[in-house]
Specification:
The protein has 9 helices and 4 strands. By secondary structure, it is mainly α.
Amino acid sequence: MRYLRKYPDSPLVQSELSYDKVSDRLPIRKQLLKEQQGFCAYSERFVKSTDETHIEHFDPRLKETSQDNYFNWYAVLPRFNSQKPKHIEPFLPILSPTALDLSARITYQSEIGVFQATNPHDIEAKNLVKFLKWDSYELHEDCQKHLQRIKILRELCGDETLFLEKLTFDKDNLSFATALEAEFGLNISELLARVA
C-alpha cells in the first residue's frame, strides 16, 4: 500500500502530458514508476526491467475524461490491471487509495497473511481491498512464498547486519513491503535508501 502515494509537486501535475496521447504514455509510465520507487502500486512487487507495466486508471469512470490525470494513474503489472474489475460502481463507497489514513484503515494481518480492513464495519476499506484484489489467493500465495525466501535468507545470514546487506542487494527482495514490515519489523523506507 505504500506505493499509492501521490505528490502534489509531481512533474506530472504541471506537465502537459496526456494519457490520450500515445507518445506521452512512456514518459508518464516512467515517472509513475520513479515515484513508486520501481514497485507495482497494487501488488508491491518490484518491477524488473524485463517486466511490462501498464498505466492503470484507478477509477475507470474517469478514463477518457478531463478528470483523468496523475491522481488517477498508477504504474502496475499487467495482471493487476487486467484482473481489477472494469466497473467501480459495485464497490462504492470506496476508500481512496490516496487517503492519508489508508495504512490505519487497511492492514496486513501477519497471523493469516492477508490484507483486511482494520475495522470490520469499515465498508469503504473493505471495498478497496476487494476492488484491488488484495484478498486474492494468488497474491497471498506469492507474498507468502516471498516471505519464506526472506525468512530463509535471514536464517542463513545469522548476523542481522549481513542479512540487511544481502536483503538490500536487490530491490526485488523488498517486494511486498507492507508484509515485510509486519513480519520482520523492517523499515522499508530506510532499506530502500540503501539500495543502489
